[in-house]
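I can't quite decide. Please look over this sequence plus structure tokens:

:::
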Amino acid sequence: MKIRAATEAAVYRFTWWDRYAGKEVVSPRSATLEAITRCKGTPIEDTRQVVNSRDVDSNGFYSIPNG
């Protein structure tokens, strides 16, 4: 049995334009820079966290709740 080494990923809280609210909002989730770019968001730099990459889903979102 091969054991996969845990790797780290940097995730950030971010803002994005909510067209329904008509304003920029802070996402309730954290994500990788790649995922934030895909959803046309802006990372909040001082919220950077280094997490286990296993806790980041295939879309680049951190699956552990903030808080």
About this structure: The beta strands are 8-11, 14-18, 23-26, 42-43, 49-52.
